[in-house]
């Protein structure tokens, strides 16, 4: 349990869902972790739980609205001030507007909000991480910048138009950054899950009841390609852990799909022929 031993990581959107799973796994693997979110009660409760009621200084919660540059800059500066460095910046914070719909029903307000959190948040996180990671290389360091994108970057129709635009933008940003930051020893990658049941399912609302969770899981199980299991937040967190760790030390510019092969398969012919 030491794949991130002595590393310092920030996880944005770390109070719940994929982010919380990544926070817990990164911490288990030896990292000092900063949870960044606007969900203060959830974020602080997660930090307190992982401390085990003790005085463990290896887990911290910091309020951060990723769409605001001052917040992101303060987040990174506070992390370096507390722990002395930043090795992993996981830009995970994001919002969704629910199931795909017609572009005729999409609004400029929805688009602006999604760009502000998903894309601008990723841009600002990477910018300020790079600001402190580049000097680390001069001292023999480096770093890893990681984004949560989406399987909708590999196949059309999985997300709304607004959502898909922001996630494609993140993948483009990651590839450009991999080119620039590679010379400084900084790796940049994306992890792109397909449908996963989180507290953000349902247009940004929480899945509150077991019945609602079961309904969403049943839907994903039916449409998924890899039968017998559903994608979980822990699956995504494990993929993120690999990309963040030194096991992926020569992996950069990758969009790692965690979708059970869904984006590689068109089941229409098989379904039509009723071949299982």
UniProtKB/TrEMBL annotation:
- Pfam families in UniProt: adh_short_C2
Name this polypeptide is given: Uncharacterized protein
Under the heading Gene3D superfamilies, the entry gives: NAD(P)-binding Rossmann-like Domain
Q: What family classification does the UniProt entry report for this protein? A: Belongs to the short-chain dehydrogenases/reductases (SDR) family.
Protein source organism = Linum tenue
| Keyword match Ribosomal protein | no
Is Oxidoreductase among the key words of this record? yes
Q: Where is the signal peptide?
A: none
Annotated GO molecular function terms are: oxidoreductase activity
């Amino acid at each position: 349990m030491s794949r991130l031993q002595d590393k310092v990581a920030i996880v944005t959107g770390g109070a719940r869902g994929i982010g919380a799973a990544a926070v817990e796994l990164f911490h288990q693997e030896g990292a000092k972790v900063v949870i960044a979110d606007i969900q203060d009660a959830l974020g602080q409760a997660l930090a307190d739980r992982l401390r085990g009621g003790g005085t463990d200084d290896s887990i911290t919660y910091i309020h951060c609205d990723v769409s605001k540059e001052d917040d992101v800059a303060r987040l990174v500066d506070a992390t370096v001030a507390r722990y002395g460095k930043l090795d992993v910046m996981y830009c995970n914070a994001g919002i969704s507007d629910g199931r795909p719909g017609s572009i005729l029903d999409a609004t400029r307000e929805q688009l602006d909000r999604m760009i502000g959190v998903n894309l601008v948040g990723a841009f600002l996180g990477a910018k300020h991480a790079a600001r402190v990671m580049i000097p680390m290389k001069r001292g023999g360091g480096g770093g890893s910048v990681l984004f949560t994108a989406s399987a909708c970057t590999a196949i059309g129709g999985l997300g709304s138009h607004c959502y898909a635009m922001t996630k494609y933008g993140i993948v483009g940003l990651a590839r450009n950054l991999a080119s620039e930051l590679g010379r400084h020893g900084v790796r940049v990658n994306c992890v792109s899950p397909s449908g996963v049941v989180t507290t953000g399912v349902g247009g940004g609302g929480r899945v509150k009841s077991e019945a609602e969770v079961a309904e969403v899981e049943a839907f994903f199980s039916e449409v998924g390609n890899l039968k017998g299991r559903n994608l979980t937040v822990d699956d995504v967190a494990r993929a993120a852990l690999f990309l963040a760790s030194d096991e992926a030390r020569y992996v950069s510019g990758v969009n790692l799909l965690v979708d059970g092969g869904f984006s590689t398969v068109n089941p229409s012919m098989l379904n039509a022929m009723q071949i299982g």
